[in-house]
User: Fold this.
Amino acid sequence: MIRRLTAAAQSPLEEALVQRLVADLAAQTGDVRPIELQVVGAQLQREDIDTLDKYEYLGDSPKETLVQRFLAYVVKDCGPPNERLAWVVLYLLTDEDREHRLYRPFRTREDLEYELSLLKMPFEGPQLDLVLSILVGSGLVFEVPEEPEDRYQLVHDYLVSYVRQEQTPELMAELTAARHHPTQNQG
Assistant:
């Protein structure tokens, strides 16, 4: 599949790189997840990485590096004034259950606005619209049309840990405290 996708591209991938990508992408589950292939492939193309040497130059975990860079690229697309808002929105589209398992909750815009207000995160409606539009357009977030309000969800479980890695422990603690004591955090 990777060969077929890259054959039409202007810069096809070196065979050794294709073999390594398949191994890296299938390492956890034994299968290549299409969304992960999409994310890694987009970043390979963006960074003009078409040889195994260029891929390995990314360090010990090149696939993870590419996923992190993809997330950063999408957030950067939101514009400098909206980058923090975008990271926090992505974070709000993740959660942890009582057994400390990470998951991707559905959130309405109202849910997001409420949690942003708990964090005293300054934003205007058009900023949140822009951020959600870019996150959905990038393929990182699903928008699920529903009545009375659309819901948003991070596109795949494997992205949850990457998103959460980007957030400071302070933000995580602040959100946990705000969720447990909402009246103390609203001003």
